[in-house]
Every structure is written in C-alpha cells, then in structure tokens.
Amino acid sequence: SNRNLPPSPLKLPVIGNLYQLRGLFHKCLHDLSKKHGPVLLLRLGFLDMVVISSTEAAEEALKVHDLECCTRPITNVTSKLWRDGQDIGLAPYGESLRELRKLSFLKFFSTTKVRSFRYIREEENDLMVKKLKEAALKKSSVDLSQTLFGLVGSIIFRSAFGQRFDEGNHVNAEKIEDLMFEVQKLGALSNSDLFPGGLGWFVDFVSGHNKKLHKVFVEVDTLLNHIIDDHLKNSIEEITHDRPDIIDSLLDMIRKQEQGDSFKLTIDNLKGIIQDIYLAGVDTSAITMIWAMAELVKNPRVMKKVQDEIRTCIGIKQNEKIEEDDVDKLQYLKLVVKETLRLHPAAPLLLPRETMSQIKIQGYNIPSKTILLVNVWSIGRDPKHWKNPEEFNPERFIDCPIDYKGNSFEMLPFGSGRRICPGIAFAIATVELGLLNLLYHFDWRLPEEDKDLDMEEAGDVTIIKKVPLKLVPVLHH
Ligand code: HEM
Fold first, then answer.
1. What is the interface pTM, i.e. ipTM, of the complex?
2. What predicted TM-score, i.e. pTM, was given to this entire model?
3. Which end of the chain is more exposed for a tag (fewer CB within 10 A), N or C?
4. What is the pLDDT of residue 1?
5. Residues β-bridged to residue 171
6. Under the phi-then-psi rule, with left for phi > 0, alpha for psi from -120 to 50, and beta for the rest, what region is 385?
C-alpha cells in the first residue's frame, strides 16, 4: 500500500486475476472498473496490467504521459509473427517507428494525397451495389457482414497489392482471410507470455500453439514473397501501372535509398507494413459499417433521416455512380458514423501500450514496464460525459466539438497521441462511402420483421457483431 498502486481485485496465487476474466474481455474490465475504480491494476499470470476506463485518466495517460506510454509490449513468443518489431503496429517506440509512421502518412494514409485509392474505393463500391441489386431483384436476404468484409478486403488488397483477390496467382480471398484471422488469433498473448519459464512454454508446446505459430508465419511470408517477386519482375520488365500500389511505392523507395540515409527501409519493414495495413484496416472498417447498419435498422427514425438527407442532397444520378466527393455534402451521415464509433469502437481496448518509465495517473503510481489498456468502449458510454449513453442518437454531436481524431478523450475509437491510428482518413473515407452506397441505392428490412435484431458482441482485440447481419435489400430507384 505504501507504493500507492491502483486498486486491484483479489488475486489468487499464480493465476492472479485471470479467474475473473470470463466472457468478453472489455466487458469484464468494464464491470471490474465499475467496482474498483477507473484506474485498475490486474495481474494476469506474471504480467501486470493497468486498465484505464475514464476520460480523465485516459487524458493523463495518452496526453500528459504520451511519451512514456507510447511503446507496445512485444512478447517473445509472438514477436516473429510481428516481424520482430519491423512493422508499425507492434514496433517499439523509436526512430525507426517514427520514420515508418511518417512515411505511411505521407504515402498511403492521406486520402487527399493518394487519389488512386479513391478510384479503387469507388469501383469496389459499384461492384458491391451491382451484386446487391441482383439480390434485391430476387428479394433474397444478403449476409451484409460478409458483403462488407469482402468490400473492405478488396479495397485494401487492391491498394496494397495492386490486384483483385480473384486475379492473384498465389492466393484466393478465403485463403487470405483465413490466414490473417490466424495471425490475429495467434498474435495475441500466449501462455508463455503469461507464465514465463517452463510452465507456459510447456502448455504452448503441448497445445500445439508454437507449431501453429511457425506454420502461419511461414505461410504469410511465402505469400508476401510471391507478391513481392511479381512486383519486382514487373518492374524489371518495365511493366508500369498508371496507379502504383503500396508495394510498388515501397520497393521504389528501397531502390532509391542512398548510402548516407540515416533511416533505411528494409524488405522486412515492407512486409510488416503490408501485414499491418491488412490486419489493422480490414476488419476495423468492415466492423464499423456493420454496426452502423445494425443501429440504423434498429432505429428507423435515424435511418429515415439519414436516407432523406442522402437522397435529397444527391438526387437522381444519371449513371447511378456515387463519387467520394458526394460524401462532403452529407452532414448527418457523418454524425451517424461518429455515433457508431462512440458506441462500437472496433478495438475497444486500443492496442496494448507499455509504460517506459514510472508515471502517475489519477494520483496512483504506475511502475515502468506495466502493460496499459485503455477501455474506450467504457469511456464512450460513461454517464458522466454522455447523456443516455446507450441510446443511438447522432444528434448528440450537433454543435458538439467532440471528435474521433484523438483530441477529445470522451471518445477515442482511433486512440490518441504518438500511437494513434495512422489510417483514420483512409478508414473514414471507406466507411462513409460504403454506407452512402448502401443507403442511397437500397432500403433495408429484416428477413423476419417481427423479430428483434440481435446486437450481441464477440471477439477480443476487435469486436464484431456475433450473429452476422442478414438483411433484405429493396431497390430504391
Ligand atoms: C474504422 C476503422 C479503424 C479503426 C476503428 C482503427 C482503430 C485503431 C486503433 C484503436 C489503433 C490503436 C491506437 C492506439 O493504441 O492508440 C489503431 C492502430 C493502427 N491502425 Fe487503425 N483503425 C481503423 C482503420 C485503419 C486502417 C484503414 C488502417 C490502414 C490502412 C489502419 C492502420 C493502423 C496501424 C498501422 C496502426 C498501428 C499504429 C501504431 O501502433 O503506431 N487502421 N487503429
């Protein structure tokens, strides 16, 4: 007690607080915080973890102590999968990470700079609408969860690799989705991380975890090698595209590096960035659109209002093609996206941070090398800052300066500070355009209208809608 650590629920020998974490991780932490306070110390096996669940504590951690909290814990077992910190998302804080983030912002994530990605987004949306129109003519229901994962997967796959899923020689859509799902699953904490030394290793060995990890790493690496080889072959044969993809740009940068450059981009960095973009970009953006559609179907008043805005502002388009610029006119649609991000942040605990030195949060001492989780799911529904927090009410953002860009600590769906999501602009452009297409062309109804829509959550790092969203599209025009 004289170390003035944050409050902590009762721990059991060896396992610590693990026994209290059953069910959805972010919800367990939410419940524990309600009982013990917004700065909570947990021990999971041999790992110390502080969980932050209030606006004020988040501001202290991510703003006041941004520098001390901006590295990620990198674990021995999974580090190979994350390319030993040569990527962005799991890289320790330092010169190399700063350069990689700067480069990604300038080259790939700024929507105004990268116009070619805009065409990819528009083309993929047109294709999605075409398929949905066929379903609408047949009056059949569609699995919108699958449709939206497919949409974002194709947008990101084409932006990164320059190919459609179905054009590649080395992989098909299902294979890459399965592979990335495995990376996400295996890349989280393992028993060896929680129980360093013999015990954890033994459990991972017996359960086959280590073998699976190695197999998945080899598969992802082989796939990336094939795709990189194709790009290198094209560049030797001088097959140039008018729209270079992310791999083209990174290879070009590697080629043009000079001896004296202080930062040198490597093929491992390239693989890490591509892996990150796919892992961090696809399911987060798809999840956000799925939750937005689910909330709209559940709230017909909001659905009507947003569709009225869209259809009035855009009117009847001759070629029926929606362009990205159309989104600029749609203020209420933007509020719908904001409200979705408040209630359904795709990564409810952000990505784990690790303190680099001892800091104080809300008066408590947080020792160096403590894992830090910020429960933004909890923060976004804190009744101290949000009136009727569980209600889906986009109007709450009218004349309200709170935003998702990391400066308002009342909602932090993209995190904040030095490790804030670098893909915000890309994500928002993808989500807004996708929703606009769904809401302009179609009305939506439940397959069984007398049944309530299930809103149960599932997942750990990212939180999906547990039951896939199945809806019937009805052609509007
Ligand atoms: C709605 C969609 C998205 C959401 C909700 C989201 C959310 C997040 C969050 C919460 C973090 C951790 C931030 C922190 O720890 O403070 C993160 C990190 C990251 N995101 Fe996103 N993201 C989205 C889309 C994207 C897209 C489209 C890309 C790339 C094209 C992307 C790339 C990244 C990367 C590379 C990181 C790691 C940054 C670092 O550790 O320095 N994200 N994202």
1. 0.99
2. 0.93
3. N
4. 46
5. none
6. alpha
